[in-house]
Design brief:
Elements (H helix, E strand, L loop, with lengths): L2 E5 L3 H10 L6 E5 L7 E5 L2 E5 L2 E3 L10 E4 L6 H11 L5 E5 L5 H5 L8 E7 L2 E5 L2 E4 L4 E5 L2 H9 L7 E4 L2 H14 L1 H6 L12 H18 L7 H10 L8 H8 L6 H13 L5 H14 L10
Parallel strand pairs: 1-2, 1-6, 2-5, 3-10, 6-7, 7-8, 11-12
Antiparallel strand pairs: 3-4, 8-11, 9-10
Helix pairs in contact: 5-7, 10-11
């Protein structure tokens, strides 16, 4: 029976935990700062209610077969405190975070061969503490390695679409190209719909083109029609669509600025690629985040 510990029961971590707990072969536990008795996830297939073992302090945990990190990308140091006691020589640490630097974030704390980067494209929102709404199935993607294949097997009794890819680098940059445009709703506090907000189209295109240029310099092989696909998406974007960056700003939580637009700027600089629009957006987001308000950690 694989023991699986999820660090961070937010929208993604909670959804994944609830589904994994549906397979009685799995032993699922959750690391969180605030305890709760049960976790409810409203899925496209009905509601799931589970009562996993809850840990609120690193001193309570034990070595697990699998550790799934579902905290925000900026929460590396708080997460590392849990890893000190959760990770043994055979533990696989799966990193379910945004950006393209999953492995680099945790290499100071876990041997590289035990780290598994994960790209999550799943629509889920917290309705209340320990209550999540999963609005679509989406997909979860990992590298096509032995650890990646073993990760997929953990979900074989769930309805989540979990798959491997032989080109994880390109998949990660594809997701980041989408995510870098999510900065605009976080600034305007309105869903981005280019049919109604045509004045933003040149800025959206600039963000996309800069990210694609950096991705190619990193060795990613992106669809040549990616820019137009994303423009089409935003022309037809639902009026109630809220991405995670937007949701974090509304809630007064820190935003994943550095892992998204900031990463495009930093990695672009390594290749001598100018990314003025992403740099400008990064400055605006950091200014917006400094507005007085309550800032809560993500888990």
């Amino acid at each position: 029976m694989p023991s699986i510990t999820i660090i961070g029961p937010g929208s993604i971590g909670g959804t994944v935990a609830a589904w994994l707990a549906q397979d009685k072969v799995n032993t699922v536990s959750i690391c969180t700062r605030t305890t709760f008795t049960e976790l409810t996830v409203d899925t496209p297939y009905g509601s799931i209610i589970v009562k996993p073992e809850i840990f609120t302090s690193p001193e309570q945990v034990r070595v697990a077969d699998w550790v799934l990190i579902a905290t925000k990308a900026y929460d590396v140091e708080p997460t590392a405190k849990w890893l000190q006691r959760l990770v043994g020589p055979h533990t696989v640490v799966a990193i379910l975070q945004n950006g393209v630097e999953h492995v680099e974030r945790f290499m100071p704390y876990v041997p590289k061969e035990q780290l598994l980067p994960v790209i999550v494209s799943l629509s889920a929102q917290r309705k209340a503490p320990a209550h999540i709404w999963q609005s679509s199935n989406g997909e979860i993607t990992v590298p096509d390695t032995n650890n990646g294949k073993a990760f997929v097997k953990l979900f074989q009794q769930t309805k989540l679409n979990v798959q491997t890819t032989a080109d994880f680098l390109s998949h990660a940059w594809d997701k980041l190209t989408l995510n870098c445009t999510g900065a605009i709703p976080a600034i305007t506090l309105k869903p981005l719909n280019l049919r109604e907000q045509e004045e933003w189209i040149d800025i959206v295109r600039a963000l996309i083109r800069e990210c694609i240029a950096v991705a190619k310099a990193e060795g990613a092989n992106l669809d040549e029609t990616l820019e137009e696909k994303l423009i089409y998406k935003y022309v037809n974007n639902p009026s109630n669509s809220i991405n995670s960056l937007h949701a974090d700003r509304i809630a007064g939580r820190p935003m994943e600025i550095d892992a998204r637009n900031g990463a495009v700027v930093r990695i672009g600089q390594r290749h001598g690629i100018s990314t003025p629009m992403n740099q400008f957006i990064t400055i605006l987001l950091n200014m917006a985040q400094q507005v007085p308000g309550t800032m809560e950690a993500s888990f």
